[in-house]
Design brief:
With 429 residues, this protein is of the alpha/beta class. It folds into three domains: 1-167, GTPase HflX, N-terminal domain (Rossmann fold); 197-359, 3-Layer(aba) Sandwich (Rossmann fold), CATH 3.40.50; 362-428, 2-Layer Sandwich (Alpha-Beta Plaits), CATH 3.30.70. The protein has 14 helices and 13 strands. Strands 6-7-5-8-9-10 form a six-stranded mixed beta sheet, sandwiched between helices. Strands 2-1-3-4 form a four-stranded parallel beta sheet, sandwiched between helices. A three-stranded antiparallel beta sheet has the order 11-13-12. A hairpin with a 5-residue loop joins strand 6 (235-240) and strand 7 (246-251). Helix 1 runs parallel beside helix 4 (104-115). The longest helix is centred in the middle third of the chain and has 31 residues, at 164-194.
Length: 429
C-alpha cells in the first residue's frame, strides 16, 4: 500500500540589509520559522547589502539574476521577501523570476488564517487579507490560482480578475461585523470595570510561553506548540491566587518584529486586552538569542496600542535552556521573575508578584458594619483581602485590603473622605 504525502512547498528567503547584516540574518531566521509554521521548507537564503531597498525589484538587478539561478538549482516554487512588498515590486519580481512571490506580511496572514478559531478571529483575518490583497491584485498573479501552497489560505476568490467592487463590498460588510463585535467587547469591558476583580493580561513575543503560563496556573487547555502564533484568539480565565485574591487572566496573540501597522489595526480589538487590563505579565523567552530585540518589539507594540501606566511583571522564561546564567533585567518592569514555566519553576514567584501587584492597587480599609450590612463582608471576601473580622455588640469590625472601586459600594462617607484627603494632599504640596 502506498501512502500519498503532500510535498512541501520549497521557498527561497530574500532580505535586504540596510545596516547591520547580523540583524538581517536574525530576521531571516525568524522568517524561516514563520515559513515552517505556514507549511513550507526553506531551500535557500539570499541577503543583499544596500543603502536602501530597491523600489522596483526589492533587491538589485544583479541579485535578481542570482536568485533566478538559485531557483533553478534548488527547484524552488517561490520566494519570500523579509519586508512588505509594493504592488510594483510584486509584479516586477514575478515577471523576472516566473515563480510565486510572497512577503513576510502575507506569510503572517496565512498563519493567522489557519489558526483563527473564533468568529471574531476569522473575520479579522479575512478583513486584513482583503485589505492587503486589494492593492496588489495586479502584481500577485500566481496567487490567482486556486489550490495549494502557503500564502493562499483564506477567504474569497484568488483570481487575478477578481472584481475590486466585490472586495470593497465585502470589506464594508466585515467592518460592520467588526464594529458590532467591538461594541460587544466594550460592553463586556464596562461590566468588568464595575466588577472589582483585577484583569491581568499576558503579553509577549510569539512563542515565549504565554499559553503555557495560562495553562499551568488555570488548566485552560489553550493550544501549546513550539511554533510561532500557536495562539491567535484571546482566552480569559478566572484565577484564585494562593492568598485567596481573585484575578482574570487573559492570554493574547503573540507580538513579532516587523508587524505592519495595518495588521495591528486589524487585530486591535484583540490586542487591546492589554490596554484595558490592570496588570501586564510580560513573558520573555530568555533562551532566544534575539531576546533584547524581541523585548523591544513587545514594548514598541504596546506603545502603538496606547498602553500606558500599567503595573508590569516581566517573567524571564525558559532559563533552564541557558548554559550560563546571565543577569537578566527589565528596567521597565515593576516586578521581575525568573523561571521555566513548563517545568513549574518560578510559578510561586509569579503568584507572589501578582499578589503584590494586586495589593498595591488596593487600600487599607477599616470599618464597622451593622449586622444588617453583613452582606458587605461577602463583597470584601470576593473582591478584596479580608485581614480581620470581629463580631461585637456594635457591629462587625473589619480590616481589609480592598479595590478603590469597591469602597463606594461599602461606605460612601469613607470614599469621599479618602478622595478629599488625596485632593488636599495635592493642593498642599
Amino acid at each position: 500500500m502506498y501512502e500519498n504525502k503532500e510535498e512541501l512547498e520549497k521557498v527561497i528567503l530574500v532580505a535586504v540589509s540596510t545596516g547591520n547584516e547580523e540583524d538581517a540574518q536574525e530576521s531571516l531566521d525568524e522568517l524561516e520559522e514563520l515559513v515552517s509554521t505556514a507549511g513550507a521548507v526553506v531551500v535557500g537564503r539570499v541577503v543583499q547589502n544596500l543603502e536602501h531597498i530597491n523600489n522596483t525589484t526589492y533587491v538589485g538587478t544583479g541579485k535578481v539574476k542570482e536568485i533566478k539561478d538559485l531557483i533553478w538549482e534548488t527547484d524552488a516554487d517561490a520566494i519570500v521577501c523579509d519586508d512588505e512588498l509594493s504592488p510594483a515590486q510584486y509584479k516586477n519580481l514575478e515577471d523576472e523570476l516566473e515563480v510565486k512571490v510572497m512577503d513576510r506580511t502575507l506569510i503572517i496572514l496565512d498563519i493567522f488564517a489557519g489558526r483563527a478559531k473564533t468568529a471574531e478571529g476569522k473575520i479579522q483575518v479575512e478583513l486584513a487579507q482583503l485589505r492587503y490583497r486589494s492593492t496588489r491584485l495586479i502584481g500577485m498573479r500566481n496567487l490567482s490560482r486556486q489550490g495549494g501552497g502557503i500564502g493562499t489560505r483564506g477567504p474569497g476568490e484568488k483570481k487575478l480578475e477578481v472584481d475590486r467592487r466585490l472586495i470593497r463590498n465585502r470589506i464594508s460588510q466585515l467592518k460592520e461585523q467588526v464594529s458590532e463585535m467591538e461594541n460587544h467587547r466594550q460592553v463586556t469591558r464596562a461590566k468588568r470595570q464595575d466588577n472589582p476583580v483585577p484583569v491581568v493580561a499576558i503579553v509577549g513575543y510569539t512563542n515565549a510561553g504565554k499559553s503555557t503560563l495560562l495553562n499551568t496556573v488555570t488548566n485552560a487547555e489553550v493550544l501549546e506548540e513550539d511554533k510561532l502564533f500557536a495562539t491567535l484568539d484571546p482566552t480569559t480565565r478566572n484565577y484564585k491566587l494562593p492568598d485567596g485574591q481573585e484575578v482574570l487572566l487573559t492570554d493574547t496573540v503573540g507580538f513579532i518584529r516587523k508587524l505592519p501597522h495595518h495588521l495591528i489595526d486589524a487585530f486591535r480589538s484583540t490586542l487591546e486586552e492589554a490596554k484595558y487590563s490592570d496588570i501586564i505579565i510580560h513573558v520573555v523567552d530568555a533562551s532566544n538569542p534575539s531576546m533584547d530585540k524581541n523585548v523591544h518589539a513587545v514594548y514598541e507594540t504596546l506603545d502603538n496600542l496606547g498602553v500606558k501606566d500599567k503595573t508590569i511583571i516581566t517573567v524571564f522564561n525558559k532559563e533552564d535552556k541557558l548554559e550560563t546564567k546571565p543577569i537578566l533585567r527589565d528596567f521597565k518592569a515593576d516586578y521581575v521573575v525568573h523561571g521555566a514555566i513548563k517545568k513549574g519553576i518560578g510559578i510561586d514567584d509569579i503568584n507572589e508578584a501578582i499578589e503584590n501587584a494586586v495589593k498595591s492597587m488596593r487600600v487599607l480599609y477599616e470599618n464597622v458594619f451593622t449586622y444588617a450590612e453583613a452582606g458587605k463582608t461577602g463583597l470584601i471576601r470576593k473582591y478584596g483581602q479580608l485581614l480581620e473580622e470581629e463580631y461585637k455588640e456594635d457591629g462587625i469590625h473589619v480590616k481589609a485590603y480592598v479595590p478603590t472601586s469597591l469602597i463606594g459600594r461599602l461606605n460612601w462617607q469613607w470614599y469621599f473622605y479618602m478622595v478629599y484627603s488625596q485632593w488636599f494632599s495635592v493642593v498642599k504640596h
